[in-house]
Amino acid sequence: MQEHHLKPYEGLLVVSLEQAVAAPLASCHFAQGGARVIKIEREGEGDFARKYDGAVKGTASYFAWANHGKESLCLDIKKPGDTALLDRLLAKADIFIQNLAPGAIDRAGFGSETLRQKYPRLITCDISGYGEAGAYCEMKAYDFLVQCESGLVAVNGAPGHPGRIGVSVCDIGASMNAIIGLQKALIARGITGKGSAVKLSLFDTAADWMTVPLLHTVYAGNAPQPVGLHHPSIAPYGGFTTSDGQILAISIQNEREWVKLCAEVFERPDLAKDPLFCNAAARVRNRLDTDAMVAAYFAARTRAEMEARLRAASIAFGAVNSVADFAAHPQLRRAPVTLEDGQEAELVAPPVRHSFEPDQPRLGRVPAVGQHSAAIRAEFG
Question: GO MF terms on file (predicted)?
Fold first, then answer.
């Protein structure tokens, strides 16, 4: 007898007028949980994220990651017939997600307030760049630009060289916030019987993450500066090169760990009492001396020697891996996916695991552009 795994979102219909990353990742979460997700795309080219690259056997990496398990419906919402079809879909939908350009959804007649008046149980989710009001509300807001505007790049990178975070963190974070907001709205609907609006922006997402640097700037007048692999207020904390050219990162969080590092790794317990290094404030104040001392020790020993010593002393460490190293990491979990042309690939397995789900999940198929258009038009026609 085949084991049945609980799918908590089974029975939900999610309609998503989406593009790029933030909204597709959010709706993909619901597809993974068993919801029926209808992705609305432009006729012909579809979601422009389909053309970002062809890295996964001809399929775009972003698209495969954010769109498996969905149905693809091509619509032109400027055409009366397609507008009517979208209305019929939304009349039966539980959730409507959209991340179109500012104002576009309202001009098309599908603004969230209007929709919830027509369909009181519908939950709407608007993902924007900067929100619906304010001087920036109509600005285009790609992930990199929001990283810049929010100050994220100012606290990343190396000294004198602020840097973009190497993955689309504002898009990804916005999708996570959308999921959190939608789950809260589903619980609220279970209590009240009514849908509600979920609104969030990439900028607000980044701003939330920038709370600590913001507080340091506003209340202490001391904005954190980019420090590469190091930490603005902890030392030693960072990457140090071993004699065989590998980089190991260590993170000393408290005085107990510092004493153990000196005594059990460096075999120099006296260093823990040296005025230059005797407490956290002294080590930060004398960061150059602290880091030089640690770096010299690492430089005289191989990665294997250092890992053995650090592990024995219970000092937190990690290798500064390349992406190729990461791809071979023993802790990396993968899940199979079928691409739109039928080829097989592997994505990273979903990070959240539930006891009611299989240990080895299989992801849904990545849809071709308009693959389900005919069937959906017939069903809702």
Answer: CoA-transferase activity
